[in-house]
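This follows on from our talk about sequence and fold. Go ahead and set the record down below:
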Amino acid sequence: PVRARKIAVPLAALRDRISASQCKNLLEKGVKHLFAHDELGDPFLDLLMTAQGQKGALALVEKALRMRRARKIPEALQILAWLALHDHLDQEGRYQLALTRLLADGKPSLNDDASAPGGDATMGYFAALVRDSFPVFDRLRKESTVLPESLLRMGRHFSAGVGNERRFGTDLLQFVAEKHSKQRAGEEAKLALRVGGV
């Protein structure tokens, strides 16, 4: 790994000469090593980012989305987490990370407490987006892969907050109550809205 990093530094100086096909190769090799938890993934992906910048980040996000559609959620999450760790995600990328994390969490119990554990990364990702005025609710209600139980869990969590987060949580609960009214999640959402005085 140290040797790979030493080689990557002079290669980065040649970034203008790295072709599109070489960048694609860097992406594939970097992702392969990332999935294998091999430290060689970092130099490959770092070189890709040096050569292509935001274009490389978008290519990695697209790769993650293809993985997610193929139901390879942990792999998609690894790519997006790497991008977040190295500060290469824009708001859309951060939304995709939050959504992928929500899908990775799986189906929550309907009896989950309204407030998630203090270290719940999923809620943290969405909270940051809500605070940044990203249209999270509009995007989530169009996502067919998100379970109503997951939306209910988020609605309960955020409706216990204040300001924009509370409004977001209430909107989610109302959406689940209306769209999934005949399912248990819809009934639970209606109950949460009544208890919350909405």
The chain is about 70% helix and 0% strand. The radius of gyration is 20 Å.
